[in-house]
Amino acid sequence: MSVTDKFIQQIDANKAGLIKRLADAVAIPSVSGDARYRQDVFRMADWLVKELEALGAKTELKPLGKQKLDGKEIDLPPVIFADYGTDPKKKTILVYGHFDVQPALKSDGWNTEPFELVHDEKTDRLYGRGSTDDKGPVLGWINVIEAHKQAGIELPVNLKFCLEGMEESGSEGLDDLIVAEKDKFFAGVDAACISDNYWLGTKKPCLTHGLRGISYFKLSISGPGSDLHSGIFGGIVHEPMTDLFHIMSSLVTPQGEILVPGIKELVDPLTDEERKRYEVMEFGVKDMNEATGSATTISDEKEGILMARMRYPSLSLHGVEGAFYEAGTKTVIPAKVIGKFSVRLVPSMTPDKVAELVIKHVQSEFKKLGSKNTMNIELANAGKPWLADPNHWNYAAAIKATEKVYGVKPDLTREGGSIPVALSFSEVLGKNLLLLPLGRADDGAHSTNEKLDLSNYVEGTKLLGVYLHEIAATA
Ligand SMILES: C[C@H](N)C(=O)N[C@@H](Cc1c[nH]cn1)C(=O)O
Ligand SMILES: [Zn+2]
Ligand SMILES: [Zn+2]
Q1: Ligand nearest to the CA of 211
Q2: Where does Mn(2+) 2 bind (predicted)?
């Protein structure tokens, strides 16, 4: 039996162990965007360090200093550096992942408790916050090391881990750490791999060589000293929510067209050659409908959908802090509301330029309202877009591994989401970076009822391990 077959057999024999590990990780509510959960993000880092050390990795926690969140100054969670193997004859692969998650409450519409992993045996799906983004994939790498140890097989490469707890909140502090550690911890890295995105649809695996960037804004409008009765004060005062809705609706049309002057002009023109790349992709409107659980795509053509995800910017409205949103008919005029929206950036757009255009537009729209309220707009976090050359042994190894594990040639995609440090890894380290996702498009990352199919977790773990063997065999 070949070494990779032994590894695969070991993974199949330990499915229960893999599920238990994910359940333990999901049980820690490591929400980075809410100061009340900050201790849990630290706890999650300690838990991962224990898992890695137990398997023989050498770890170090790198502090990142402080941040301002919800008006308080609090400690940023540490970054975990870990080394597994330092054999100079082997290639060294840098693995990045994140152990923080998006917020989740059962009352948001979850069918189960978000921080309890639930294995639905009928569908063989694992439900829980972080199952697919990004605890499952991070644990995939740990499962790979464990299976090698259990099966008595040598890992064919050296691994370096860089795991952070602030990805969902803009990766504050990590870029500086990468620069500072370029010739220290990151010295000797041959290539990098991140598993933190999703297949294009629900059936076919993919490799990803591009990400959109992000500029996330908070727009606050305040007026009255406290919430007011709309019967007593309605029609008398300038209402913050009315101002906010006017401005928010001046940002984007229901057809997804961004109305902020100057943004469209930043986008690279589409060439015939590029359009053909979308035409040949195996993908249909039906795949997207499956992923969204609806038939609500703006475009009815697959090329339009693919380009909207991969090569055009988008502007999304996320929520309003301070607004009345519960059941019932409360007749309140909220005193202060904070609108949250973000722009996804494509290559040739920079967060600085986009912030300049958005802030100018919002100021001008607010002025038009003639309101006596106070408006403030801030860029809460940002990440640059990233695009890599897929003609590299790192991608060749992942293609072969996908063929071995899934029996198909993977799609080559660009992802619509953002991983702020992807560009830093490519630029600062000057090494090739590959995105090798485990999860499917319908996993519900950032949404209610986030899940990872058990088969994606198990086969995905095999994929990560076989990819390392392919690197050793072909690179
Ligand atoms: C693609 C990755 N799994 C992800 O979800 N990234 C976030 C990053 C982010 C940046 N600011 C806030 N979140 C995303 O794309 O939304
Ligand atoms: Zn993620
Ligand atoms: Zn995420």
Answers
A1: 1
A2: 98, 133, 196
